[in-house]
Amino acid sequence: MIASILSILVCAYGLAGIHYEHDLHLKINAGFLLVCFVLSLIATCLLLDYSTTNSSLQPIIRKSMRDLISNSQHDYDAKILRQLQEAIGCCGADGPNDYTHLLKPLPSECRDTVTGNAFFHGCVEELTWFFEFKSMGIGFLGMSLGMFNVSI
Fold it and tell me: Gene3D superfamilies given for it (predicted)?
């Protein structure tokens, strides 16, 4: 949202510089475009850093999943856990052993509906792979838009 507003303001300032034919305004606009490109680059790097394998997001997901498993006797936590494991096709934070370590029974959502085998990968890995794939597309889009703004 902020990036969009900033982009609109930079474009409006550039159009005003073109309309009034002021060299100073056009140079300031070029500086603004450079700043927007650098901010886009920084935002893309942060997005890719915090949403990939071995990022700082993984411990947060791991703690959240273990909390949900520990509190699975409550309806709200059990519902979130069921939906998450069923939709993603994962089991526990790091695999089915999380249930064993917490002395909880392995739920049916942790099993493949066809074979009945427990899912091998935990939700931390599956969610990280999901975020990594999505963030690559968003990062590519951000970098492309930044390059497009600078090149025009």
Answer: Tetraspanin
pTM of the model: 0.68
Reference 110, options 68, 49, 151; nearest CA is 68
Task: With beta carbons less than 8 A apart as the criterion, state whether 61 and 21 touch.
Answer: no
92: phi then psi, degrees, rounded to nearest 5: 65, -170
**Which amino acid would we find at residue 110?**
C
The string of pLDDT tens digits covering residues 60-90 is: 989 999 999 999 889 999 999 999 998 888 9
Confidence of residue 14 (pLDDT cuts 50, 70, 90): confident
**Would residue 11 count as lying in a domain?**
no
Residue 38 belongs to some domain of the structure: no
Residue 68: which CATH number? Answer: 1.10.1450.10
Cα gap 5→92, rounded to integer Å: 41
Exposure pattern of 40-55 as b/e (b: 16+ CB <10 Å)?
beebbeebbeebbeeb
The beta strand positions in 78-131, using DSSP E, are none
